[in-house]
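User: Sequence recovery, please. Input:
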């Protein structure tokens, strides 16, 4: 078996949303948005769409507003492109895990930089 149906549908939705945001949503308020993952309920009625935005907090807020404005369009397009009896409700959620990973990486880099020997230490 190639995985569960909710997982396959989630992958299709993630792929289609990525293509739609790249090619069909022409709103200047939409920044560099990446769909990181989609979680489907077992009954395929709801899809939790996780995304990230490249940039600062202001671009994140602006992209969030733009995505929510585009939600009905995105849902209609998903319905037209995927062969499902019922189009799932899309719930947009900012993916905080990516920001957390970045922060952990920053801390690790700081620890490595602090632990690295300096030129003075090497000459002794």
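Assistant: Recovered sequence (124 residues):
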């Amino acid at each position: 078996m190639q995985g569960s149906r909710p997982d396959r549908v989630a992958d299709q939705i993630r792929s289609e949303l990525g293509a739609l945001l790249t090619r069909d949503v022409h709103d200047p308020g939409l920044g560099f948005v990446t769909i990181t993952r989609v979680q489907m309920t077992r009954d395929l009625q709801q899809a939790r769409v996780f995304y990230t935005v490249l940039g600062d907090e202001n671009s994140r807020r602006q992209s969030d507003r733009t995505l929510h404005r585009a939600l009905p369009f995105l849902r209609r397009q998903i319905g037209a492109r995927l062969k499902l009896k019922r189009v799932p409700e899309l719930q947009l959620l900012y993916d905080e895990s990516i920001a957390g990973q970045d922060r952990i990486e920053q801390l690790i880099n700081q620890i490595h930089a602090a632990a690295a020997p300096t030129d003075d230490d090497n000459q002794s």
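The radius of gyration is 20 Å.
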